[in-house]
Design goal:
- This protein is α+β, with helices and mostly antiparallel strands and about 280 residues long.
- The chain is built from seven helices and twelve strands.
- The strands form two sheets. Strands 1, 2, 3, 4, 5, 6, 8, 10, 11 and 12 form a ten-stranded antiparallel sheet that branches.
- A hairpin with a 2-residue loop joins β3 and β4.
């Protein structure tokens, strides 16, 4: 198997003791340009969310360790303000908390759709009007030589849709899908890709975090097949399901169809504890 690294930038919300969502603004420090560097990663304020970044992990153990250590630091910081971390992908705020310039800033660098090659255009007006915010759980996959083949990044993103994006449709809140997290969302990185389809739900517990790591192994195996000139598993699955249907399952959050297709093709699904979770 090809060697790879795995990182993430996962966003979370902060709640006070009364369960009221509170902006991260001014509480954590750090931003996109200058993250707050801490052991094993970094923290930053992103809109009203708190964002966790980890140092690239080369093993399951590092993936869990780095994530847990960064989260522990975040919890320590916000705990001093009487706040706790909430891992959900869709949150409503009181209007008074969304009047600042930072609370009105959405996105930074553009991301793209692997199937169309076009930039994803996000209409944030509805989020602003309804006082909603969304939280992603983007994952970063790094390879030693991502330029080895011209289709490596395409393979990574499309395989991520099969092994991560589609199974997550079983358990994710569909509210985020109207704005972010649609099929094939990614950014090119010098080390590989940032896959931007997932929400933050996988940050809920270690079992779910390990599921992500195992699915990335399946994704990287598809790159190995590409380099060997073989038809990869994600290609065979996509041909059977149909690319348009795969995209629709992810974009619509069709949990029933996703579960059926995962069972049909032997794709590991997220922890069953989340299957009946009510949002």
């Amino acid at each position: 198997m090809l060697k790879f690294t795995l990182g993430h930038d996962a966003e979370v919300f902060l709640l006070n003791e009364d369960g009221v969502a509170i902006p991260s603004i001014g509480l954590i420090g750090g931003d996109k340009a200058y993250p707050k560097v801490i052991p094993f990663g970094a923290l930053q304020e992103d809109n009203v969310m708190a964002e966790l970044n980890i140092d690239p992990a080369k093993s399951r153990e590092e993936w869990l360790h780095n994530t847990n250590k960064v989260r522990e630091k975040l919890e320590l910081i916000v705990g001093k303000h009487g706040l706790s971390v909430r891992v959900v992908s869709f949150q409503t705020f009181q209007p008074k908390f969304l009047r600042s310039k930072q609370a009105q800033m959405f996105g930074c660098d553009p991301d793209f759709n692997i199937y169309t090659g076009k930039e994803n255009i996000i209409d944030s007006s509805t989020l602003i009007k309804n006082n909603h915010r969304t939280a992603g759980g983007h994952i970063h996959i790094g390879l030693e030589n991502p330029e080895q083949h011209p289709n490596i990044r395409r393979t990574l993103v499309q395989a991520c849709d099969v092994f991560i994006g589609m199974p997550l449709a079983i358990v994710e809140n569909t509210g985020r899908k109207a704005f972010y997290g649609r099929a094939g969302s990614y950014r090119n990185k010098e080390y590989g890709i940032e896959y931007r389809t997932p929400s933050n739900i996988w940050l809920t517990n270690e079992e779910f975090m390990l599921w992500i790591y195992e699915q990335v192994i399946a994704v990287v195996n598809c790159v190995s097949d590409l380099l060997r000139g073989r038809t990869s598993l994600h290609q065979r699955i996509t041909e059977i399901i149909g690319q348009d249907r795969l995209i629709d399952i992810i974009n619509s959050g069709d949990a029933e169809e996703s579960l059926f297709q995962c069972k049909e093709h032997g794709i590991y699904t997220p922890p069953k504890d989340f299957f009946l979770e009510e949002w």
